[in-house]
Design goal:
alpha/beta, Dihydrodipicolinate Reductase, domain 2, six-stranded parallel beta sheet
Length: 362
C-alpha cells in the first residue's frame, strides 16, 4: 500500500511538503521531481534518490506516480493541474486553487470527468488546534457565532523578497495579499462557520514593488448562518505585532489566537487558540489555551502540512472526497473573487452565489 507522488515545483512551499515524504515513505513515496530550475530539481531529487525533470508536461506523462503535488507560482496551477489530470494523475494543488473562477470550475469538471481526486492545500484545516476549535463550534459550546475577525499580516519586502519576485506581479500571482495569503483565513472561517453569502471589500496598492496587485485590504463577510466577519490584510507593512489571527465571538464563549509573544513567528506553526466562556470567573482577559494532541483530534501528527498530504494519500487510496476538495474550494474561491468584485466596484456588496453562477460553479 501507499501512494507514489511526483513533485512539481521544488522551491518555496515545497520545503514544507518534503518532511511528509521523508517521515511517511510507507504512505507517500516521492518518485520524481520537476522544476524549471534544473539545479534545484536535481538537488531535491538527489535527496530522495529519484529522477528529475524540467518540463511539467513531460513530467506528468513520464513519472511513475499515482498523483502529483503541484507547488508552483499561482498562474501555473491551472496548466499544470490540467496536464496532470489529463495524464490520469490525482492532483494535490497548493493554494490558491487558481487565478480565476473559470479556471477553478474547469479543473473541478476535469477531475470529475477523469475520476481523479483533486485536493487544494488549505493547510489550516489540518492543524490539531483548528480541529479542536471546530469541535467547540460544532458542539455549540460557544453558542451561536455572532461575529468573527480574521487578520493576515505579512510583508514581502520586510521578509526579504526581492522586487522582481513573482508574488509582487498580479499577472503571475493572480492578485496580491487577498488571493495569496488572506485566502487561508477565509477558508478557515468557512471550515468553522459554513459558506459566506456576500462580501464587501476595499483594497489599495501602496508599495512600489507591487504591480497590479493589492498590498492592503479591509472588508466584511456575511455568512449564510448569520455570522458577520471583518478582515484585514497587509502584504507590505513595515512592522507587524503578529502575522495572523482569528476571533470567534459566540453567545456563550469567545476564541482568539492573539499570540502570547508578539515577536513569535506563527505562520507555519499557527498561533495557539484560547477560549473563555460566559460566566468564567476572574479577569475578563483570562483565556484558557486550546492545545490538543494530534490523537485527540483524529490527526496523525502535529504538522498541518504533513497531515494534509497524508489525508490526500488516503483519499487517493480509498476514493473518498478530500476535506478540502476542489469542489469544496469553489466556494472559498468564489468568496475571494467576490471580495475582488467589491473592490473593483468601490466597496459595493458582491454576492458569492453570483460569482459561482457566472462561472458554472456549484
Amino acid at each position: 500500500m501507499g501512494v507514489d507522488i511526483g513533485l512539481v515545483g521544488a522551491g518555496g512551499i515545497s520545503h514544507a511538503h518534503r518532511p511528509a515524504f521523508r517521515d511517511f515513505e510507507d504512505r507517500i513515496r516521492l518518485t520524481g521531481v520537476c522544476d524549471v530550475d534544473e539545479e534545484r530539481a536535481a538537488d531535491v531529487a538527489a535527496e530522495f534518490d529519484v529522477e528529475h525533470w524540467t518540463d511539467f508536461e513531460t513530467f506528468v506523462e513520464d513519472v511513475d506516480a499515482d498523483a502529483v503535488d503541484v507547488a508552483l507560482p499561482h498562474s501555473l496551477h491551472y496548466p499544470a493541474a490540467t496536464a496532470a489530470l489529463e495524464a490520469g494523475k490525482h492532483v494535490f494543488l497548493e493554494k490558491p486553487f487558481a487565478t480565476s473562477m473559470a479556471e477553478c470550475s474547469d479543473l473541478v469538471d476535469l477531475a470529475e470527468q477523469e475520476d481523479r481526486r483533486l485536493m487544494i492545500g488549505m493547510v489550516q484545516r489540518y492543524h490539531p488546534r483548528h480541529r479542536a476549535v471546530k469541535s467547540l463550534v460544532d458542539a455549540g459550546e460557544l453558542g451561536p457565532i455572532h461575529t468573527a475577525r480574521i487578520d493576515m499580516l505579512q510583508s514581502l519586502p520586510e521578509a526579504g523578497f526581492p522586487p522582481d519576485h513573482w508574488l509582487y506581479d498580479g499577472e503571475l500571482a493572480g492578485g496580491g495579499g487577498i488571493l495569496s495569503v488572506l485566502v487561508h483565513k477565509i477558508d478557515l472561517l468557512r471550515y468553522f462557520l459554513g459558506d459566506a453569502r456576500r462580501a464587501i471589500g476595499v483594497s489599495k496598492t501602496v508599495h512600489e514593488s507591487f504591480d497590479d496587485a493589492e498590498d492592503y485590504a479591509v472588508g466584511l463577510l456575511e455568512f449564510e448562518n448569520g455570522t458577520v466577519a471583518d478582515f484585514f490584510n497587509t502584504y507590505s507593512a513595515a512592522g507587524r505585532p503578529y502575522d495572523e489571527l482569528f476571533w470567534l465571538f459566540g453567545g456563550d464563549g469567545v476564541v482568539h489566537t492573539v499570540p502570547d509573544d508578539p515577536h513569535e513567528e506563527p505562520y507555519v506553526d499557527m498561533p495557539r487558540p484560547k477560549v473563555r466562556y460566559r460566566g468564567d470567573g476572574g479577569s475578563d482577559k483570562r483565556f484558557e489555551p486550546i492545545d490538543p494532541t494530534p490523537t485527540e483530534t483524529g490527526l496523525p501528527t502535529d504538522s498541518a502540512f504533513t497531515n494534509e498530504l497524508l489525508h490526500f494519500a488516503d483519499c487517493v487510496e480509498t476514493g473518498r472526497e478530500p476535506l478540502s476538495s476542489g469542489r469544496d474550494n469553489l466556494r472559498t474561491m468564489a468568496t475571494v473573487f467576490a471580495i475582488y468584485e467589491s473592490c473593483r466596484n468601490d466597496g459595493a456588496p458582491a454576492m458569492v452565489d453570483d460569482i459561482l453562477q457566472n462561472h458554472g460553479g456549484a
